[in-house]
UniProtKB/TrEMBL annotation:
Fe cation 2 binds at residues 39, 67, 150, 175. The lineage of its organism: Bacteria, Bacillati, Bacillota, Bacilli, Bacillales. Fe cation 1 binds at residues 8, 39-40, 177. It comes from the Bacteria. Pfam families: YmdB. The keyword Signal does not apply. The active site is at residue 68. This is TIGR00282 family metallophosphoesterase.
Length: 264
């Protein structure tokens, strides 16, 4: 089973890139299941129901979130009715929505888990213990499990990869928006990458207008960050999972810039 996971989609530029790139990706790689992180999709902060519906109509099968899950208030109106979108499972039990699900596409199934780190992020429940709890349930239902660990610290992400080696098919990091170069298959068969990267403007700072970010660094004064409108770059990974065991057979990074699309 081939699984395509797309990094944090940021703002209008990221959404436009998704719409342009997905047909080419599907034609080139023939993924069975497509997952995307959408927590920055609406102007860099959160997601809306309309944006989620667009992603599904373009061929995305599941959406993961992160620390900006609740930034667009309309999410409270539909998250409980949309099982294909999940938020970090280690939020409090009272939080609406699901933290994990099983994505079905054709005759393929993928257990999908979203977790959020605690280092340099708000202190929520332990993602490691929550992973244990969810895996105990999901492993009886499917061999194929992908974990999106939305976290700031590389150490916390790497620790999670080792912690889940052999228990999840894929563990990928999101949130920091810069694709790392440590893609690997761990000894017990888990595909791992510290950060998948982002989909959005490559002319800003992590997808945001750079002038506002520079002002913040220079003055330490409040600055309103707005999603940048420059040319895009697109980051994702493709993993091939063994149908019988759920273990990863391969992991490949994908990095396209806007000009690449013109050459296809």
């Amino acid at each position: 089973m081939k699984v395509l996971f797309i990094g944090d989609i940021v703002g209008n530029v990221g959404r436009n890139a998704m719409k342009q790139v997905l047909p080419a990706l599907k034609s080139k790689y023939h993924p069975d299941i497509i997952i995307a992180n959408g927590e920055n999709a609406a102007g860099g902060r959160g997601i809306t129901g309309a944006i989620a519906r667009d992603f599904f109509s373009w061929g995305v099968h599941g959406i993961t979130m992160g620390n900006h899950t609740w930034d667009n208030k309309d999410i409270f109106e539909w998250i409980d009715d949309e099982p294909r979108l999940i938020r970090p499972a280690n939020y409090a039990p009272e939080a609406p929505g699901l933290g994990y699900t099983i994505i079905k596409a054709g005759n393929k199934e993928l257990g999908l888990i979203n977790l959020q780190g605690r280092v340099f992020l708000p202190p929520i429940d332990c993602p490691f213990r929550k992973a244990d709890e969810i895996l105990d349930e999901l492993k009886s239902k499917t061999k194929h499990i992908l974990v999106d660990f939305h976290a700031e610290a590389t150490s916390e992400k790497i620790a999670m990869g080792w912690y889940l080696d052999g228990r999840a098919s894929v563990v990928v990091g999101t949130h920091t928006h810069v694709q790392t170069n440590d893609d690997t298959i761990l000894p017990q068969g888990t595909a791992y990458l510290t950060d998948v990267g982002m989909v959005g403007s490559r002319e800003g700072v992590l997808g945001m207008e750079r002038k506002a970010v520079e002002y913040k660094f220079l003055t330490q004064m409040p600055s309103r960050f707005v999603a940048d409108e420059g040319e895009w770059h697109f980051h994702a990974i493709l993993t091939d999972l063994d149908d019988a065991t759920g273990k990863a057979k391969s992991i490949s990074k994908i990095r396209w810039v806007q000009e690449d699309l013109l050459m296809l």
